[in-house]
Structure formats: C-alpha cells, structure tokens
Amino acid sequence: DIDECSGVNICDENAQCINEPGGYNCVCHPGFEGNGYQCERAGSSTSSVIVPTPPSTYYEVDTPREPEHREAPQEDDRCEYCSEFADCINGRCECKTGYAGDGFVCENPCDADHVWNGETCVRQGSTEEYEIAPFCTVQGCTCPTGYALIEYAFDQICRLLEAQPEDPDLPSCDVENNCSPSANCEWDEHQYRYQCVCNPGYDGNGYTCVEKEVSCLDEEDICDQHATCNYIVSLKKSICVCNKGYEGDGRTCHLAPECAEDDDCGMNSLCSDGLCVCQDGFERDISDFCVRTGSCGGAYCAENAICMLERRQNIQYCHCPNGFVGDGIHSCKSIPPPCNIRNNCGLHASCEPDYNNPSAYECKCNAGYFGDGFLCTPERNCRNIPSLCDPNAKCVSTTSGYQCICNQDYIGNGSVCSTAPRLDSGFLLISQGVANVKVPFNGARGLPVTMAQMAIGVDKDCATGRIFWSDISAKQIFSCKYDGTDRKPFITKDIVSPEGVAVDWISRRLYWTDSAKDTIEVASLDDPDLRTIIVSKYLVNPRGIAVDPHQSKLYWSDWNRESPKIEWSNLDGTEREVLVSGPTVELPNSIQVAPGTGELCYADAGTKKIECVDTYSKRIRTVASNLTYPFGLAITDDHFYWTDWTTKKVESINTYGERQKGIPSPVFGSHKMYGMTAVTDKCPLFHSPCVINNGDCPEKRICLTNPRAPSGRGCKCADESNCNDVIMDY
C-alpha cells in the first residue's frame, strides 16, 4: 500500500496524517478538536467557522448518505479540495445533482438506471416529457416504451405512463388492492393472471390512470348552447369556442359586453355600461345607425319618396309612390310608360311580354342582336360566323344565345376542342389524414397517391383526371393527377379550416366549406385567383359539400349541435333553403348526389344511417342503418360506399340492400378515414353558360350558373376586387 501521508495532503497543521489502506485520514493533535482538516484549540469560541465532517477513506454505500447541514460557509481556500462531482457555493463544497456526499467526496449511490434526487434513488425516466409526438409509418403510429398512444379527432400524441410494478413477488391485485382508484382488477386470459385495467375514460397501465382529454367531436353535449366545436390548428385538437357575442371557455358562455369604450360603437353613439347608445339628439334607424332625431325612421327619404308608417310594428319608412321605383332612401326614379302604350323600343327590337310578369311589357332585341331593347347591335355568334367554332364542335342554340359546343369525346370551350383523355377508373379515392389513398372497387390493397399533413375533403375532376383535396393543417387546397403526379397548390391564401370540397367539372368551378370562417366559397378551376364567398351568414359548422351541375344546385351540411341541417341553393348562392333539418338529421358529415336519381344522400354519425332525400318531394329513404360512425360517402350506379371511424373499414351496400364485406383501412391503419369519392368511367359533359370566356362576365367578376336568370348565369364580384358586391343577372 502506498503511504499517501508521505506526499502532499490536506490535513490541518494541528493534525496528524494517518496512512490507511487505499487512502489516508486526518486526526487533530491532543488539545485540538475538529475533523482533522480543520482543527482549533479545544474550548476556543473565537472562530465562526463550522468544521465539516471529514471524508471517509473510501465511500461504500449501503444506504444513501446526505451531506450534513451546515450553518456557515467554509473558508474559500477549502474549495480547491472539492470533489470533481461538487460545486463551490458560497465557499462551501456541495455535491452536484445525482451525487451524495459531503462535498469533498461525492459518489452516485444508485445503479445505472437510477439517479440520486437528494432523498432517494429514482428512475432517470421520471424527468421525461409528459407528451411527445408519436412515430408514424405506413403501418400506423407507435409510441416509445412507457408511453400510451392517445387519439383525437384530427391528431395523435404519446402520453407518459408511470412504470408498472415489475417485482414478481408483488401480490396480485385480486389479493392486494394495488390498482389505481380509476382502475379495476380483471382477469387476463393471455397473461393468465389478474391485471389492473383503467376504467373507460382513462388511459394508463392500471397502476397509474390518467383521465382522457375529451374532445368535443366525441362528446356532443360538453359545449355550451352558445358555443360550437371548432378545430384549432395551433392546438392540434377540437375545442369548444363561444359564438360571436359571447365569451367564456366554450363549456360555459355568457353574453359579452357590446362595447368597452366609445370607439367601439361607431358614429354618433357612445358606450354606456357595456351597451352602445345614441348621443342626445340622435336615434337608431332601421339599419341600426344613429341618425338625427326627426327623420323618417331615422333615415332621410330620397327625392320623390314619401314617409310611411307601418302601424303593426309602429315603424316609419321611406316609400316610392306609384309610378316610381327605388328603395325610397337612395332613389325614387320615374317608371317610363311601357312599350305597349308608347312604342319606344330601339331599332332591331320589339315589344314583348315581360318574362317575370306576363301582364307587363318590355323591349327586347330581335334574334341575332343583343342589347337592352333600346340599343341593339348585331350579335357576333357562331350562327352568323360559323368559323368561330372548332372543326370538332357544333353551333347550338342555348339560353345564352348561340354557342360552340365540343362534340362527344372532345373537351374544350367550343372554339378550341381537343380529344378527351382516356382516364383510369374503377376505384375510390379516400383522404386518410396523412395521405390520399387509392382503393380499387374489388377490395384489392390500396396504395397512397400523395402524402398530406391532414387531408379531410376530397373530390375529382372527371373531365381532366385530377383530384382536389383540403388540408386543414397546411390551410390550403391542393390538386394532382389521379396517379399522384403534377401535384400543386390550388388555394393558398385567405383560407383557415377547409373541410368539404366539391368540383363542378362542367362550369369548371371548385366549391369548399371553411368551418373556421363559417363560409361557402367558390373559385375558377382555370384561375384560382378568381374566387368569391357565396354564403357567409347563419352558418355554424359547415362540413360536407356536393354539387349537381346538371340541376345547377349546391348542397352543404351544417354540423350545428343545436340545429343540424342540410341546405341547398343555386350555384351562385341564391334561393338558399333548408333541405333537411333536425331531428331528421343529427350529425351529417359527407354528402353526395346520387347518379341517375339526382337524390341528395348523406352519412349521419348521429342517426348512424346512410339516407337519401328526393329534392322535389322531400321524401327520405334509408339506404343503410345500424351503422357505427359513418363519415365519408361515395356513390356509384350500383353501390354506396362509406368510411367508418369505429370499424376502421370502407363499408358498402349494393342497390338491392345487400351489405358487402368491408375493406380494411387501406394503408395507414391507425389514421381515421375522412372524405372519399368514386372514380368511374362516366363523366357526363353538357353545356354551361360559364364555361366559355367566363360567361362573358365583366373583368373581376366570376360567372356562376343561375337558372333563374334570363341568360342562365350571374356575374359575382370576385374577392378583393373593386366592384359592387352584387350578382349581376344577364
């Protein structure tokens, strides 16, 4: 053994160095007291330095030792003798986290899987993150050991679990009640022993159970009656959000103050106790503006208008008398005598009964001319100039006049026609969150067409062989060919939470719902910058959407918990009506127009049915019932297909009412299947007044089909354009 005392040591000058096996120790001389490293004369009270406990020659640990409590710092020069696993704090040697000792000697008293926390040995994993992202592959998502996979409506996370007891000598839970208070002791046939199992509504290993975070998508009644369930991208989950005019946490909502200061109230009004009131000398008119007292209902009537009183509601209003037309406030113009009394029609025009009022007459341009009936000019059409049509097109008389229409098996605008491409068919396209998947009708294994962040709605353009899908995480709408090539973004701005998408392959338009903006919007397939909002009022949670180009109708579902409904309108948003409402529907998701019958069909996760409604008689027929959780829907001539969140399969039924064998989740097994569309070999093509040159609408206006308009279409101002935001019917 080497004599450590023969070399440099740290014993006090009033101490003796004593060699010991493997080290040395310091002992104060007689008449001195201390730990050998610092010795003072016995009985001395002049020093304020507290003597530390001397280190052991070598530190064998059976039970963890803690450094003794000291009330005063050591001398600064003693810090040079601190252990390499210690820090000098206020002149005192203190062991680092994970080590035990007196600061001069610091060791880890725990095994490799544990660390000293100052009181006992604990697992190193106890400091891991509570929630982490899962590892996802084409087979699904998994979590590391010690974590449980938690699924939400549009997201998945891994949540940390405390380790299970691994001691085989621990008594079984049927002998000793060692389960979590939120668990039961149940027999496990595979382990052939009793196991602790968390109760419904909890996640964990049975010994530790954590209450699940309930999504408002899964629980219908957790939101306040004045709140809606909205998906929040930043939180990656759906939460209850109070409606406009209310405030709270979503589960409890109360009326919000109308104002906080005068600037919140507008002109001629001020804020009083949270309410906007008119200033003295002003009153509210029928438009809710504060106008000077004494005007007609708060407004000033236009020239030629008179102030009338609506006695039932005791409201004054401006009215244009007989012989004048207008709103009474902005204008009251004299109505010219009809042309059947005074022939004031222009050249190449004639006086004919009004289309909307047969008892009235109006001037109309003769065939081959166009104008307002007072000024008519020769029409430049294919009847007068046949060369306007492509050789593979014909000149056809339509509600919009004479138009060039491409022949069968050709596509184009009539002026230019090309051979229609031969496209792949006979499969389903399904949005599965992280990918869009192609599944053959025969049930063969599906293949991913293109990857995504969180794809929800999907539809096809059968004329060009492209698919369009919404992505609520990317906040965009994308498109690609049927085989996944030529992928490109379609709508990239002013879009928040796009869900349903629907393609009008005839008029070349794309419609979509935005559940965050509460809007129904449309854009041109040829120019996505040419877009507009067609519905923005009285929507709560718009979801599914479908278009019927043949009938010029648009349908959408509204997942309003208080009043679920399916609505329809013309393709320009006019003549909006409720088609089906609660309690007939409860949770309408995807909707589709049935080919052949023209019925509007829908998947209802509340009634757990697939049903169709005749749009004329409003009669409803049930296609399939006793389902579990239908979401996406697709229809062919002989089958109905739907995605089911519970069975995680593509279910189907034929037109004879016979249920077919379900197709398992095609590729990404753990991911929910959302929207779907069927790609068949049928793509009926017919004329639309909007397909050629945007329907000849003025610049910055988008042509939208309107069968009520004389020309069969209207021109609506595109978003962010400087034009009157009204529909112009021609």
UniProtKB/TrEMBL annotation:
Q: Name one GO biological process term.
A: canonical Wnt signaling pathway
Record keyword Chloroplast present: no
One Pfam family assigned to this protein is EGF_CA
Cite the InterPro entries for this sequence: 6-blade_b-propeller_TolB-like (IPR011042), Cueball_EGF_LRP_Nidogen (IPR050778), EGF (IPR000742), EGF-like_Ca-bd_dom (IPR001881), EGF-type_Asp/Asn_hydroxyl_site (IPR000152), EGF_Ca-bd_CS (IPR018097), Growth_fac_rcpt_cys_sf (IPR009030), LDLR_classB_rpt (IPR000033)
Record's keyword terms, sorted = Disulfide bond, EGF-like domain, Glycoprotein, Repeat, Signal
A single GO cellular-component term from the record reads: plasma membrane
Q: Can you provide one Gene Ontology molecular function annotated for this UniProt record?
A: calcium ion binding
Q: Which pairs of positions does the record mark as disulfide bonds? A: 179-196, 223-240
Residue stretches of each LDL-receptor class B repeat: 465-507, 508-551, 552-597
List each copy of the EGF-like domain by range: 1-40, 169-210, 212-254, 335-375, 378-418
Report the protein name in the record.
Nidogen-1
